[in-house]
Amino acid sequence: MRMFGAPATPAALPTAAERIRSILEAAHSMTAVTEDQRTEVRHLDGADPMGRLHLHPAEPGGESEYRPAIRLEFTDVAPTPVRDRVRARVTVLGRLLTPFSDLSADSGSGAGSTCMEFVRAELETADGIFPVGLEELDAARPDPLAPYEAGMLTHLLDDHHELVTLLLRLVQPAPTAAVLRVLPLALDRYGITLRLEERSGHRDVRLPFPSPLDDVEQSGAQIQALFSAARRRSHRNTLPA
């Protein structure tokens, strides 16, 4: 995802491992591909797959043993009706150590557990494909806003669209008359991303919070800080409020 607007320091963006963990945390479904089947797993709501996927490091000499390959695919879709709604894709590659089990939240307390030898995870965005190792993935934590992002963005768009338009005052360079629509695209502990849609395409603008969030309870104050900063800006936007 290409970001525009004020320059962000490296610390103002989630790492690839953090994005993967956040996407898994908020996932509603996934696709599991093995040598003999392709399974659509739904109803993951509230059940982070990382809690039921037991990822094991590769053991020396393990490649000499037959272990079926498995590929887990997740798609990160924007909750708002922007163009090109797929924000990222995550793939977890490995080899099965136990038979694959349904990971859905309603599969029962004794089901839904799979052990796999981890090969690598990949985050695919408009910027490219970023491989992540097991230690990095284990050390990363999901974004505290990940489970709430969809509800927060749709609420902002449906009930407070004038505030979305207000945030355009923070965009540099200032939007021109070519911008037809602005929608919130993403929200994480570091800031909010807007998508500015034009007739010929779109561009994404990241507006960083004054400081990163540690928990969801801090989100209200940080979002209000952006609104306050926008009100202090004098340039007019080109979209109707």
Report what the structure shows.
This protein is of the alpha+beta class. The chain has two domains: 10-139, Electron Transport, Fmn-binding Protein, Chain A (Pnp Oxidase, Chain A); 146-232, Split barrel-like (Alpha-Beta Barrel). It has helices at residues 16-26, 134-139, 149-159, 161-166, 219-232; strands spanning 3-4, 30-34, 38-41, 53-56, 69-77, 86-96, 114-125, 128-132, 179-188, 191-198, 201-208. The radius of gyration is 20 Å and the shape is elongated. Strands 2, 3, 4, 5, 6, 7 and 8 form a seven-stranded mixed beta sheet that branches. A four-stranded mixed beta sheet has the order 1-11-10-9. The model is unreliable at 1-11 (pLDDT under 50).
Write the layout of secondary structure elements.
Elements: E1 3-4, H1 16-26, E2 30-34, E3 38-41, E4 53-56, E5 69-77, E6 86-96, E7 114-125, E8 128-132, H2 134-139, H3 149-159, H4 161-166, E9 179-188, E10 191-198, E11 201-208, H5 219-232
How far apart lie the N and C ends? 27 Å
Name the beta content range.
25-35%
Class inferred from helices and paired strands:
alpha+beta
Q: Radius of gyration, Cα only, in angstroms? A: 20 Å
Total E-strand runs: 11
Structure annotation, total helices? 5
Task: Profile the largest sheet.
Answer: 7 strands, mixed
**Name given to the CATH architecture of the largest domain:** Roll
What is the CATH first-level class name of the largest domain? Mainly Beta
In the CATH scheme, what's the topology name of the largest domain? Answer: Pnp Oxidase, Chain A
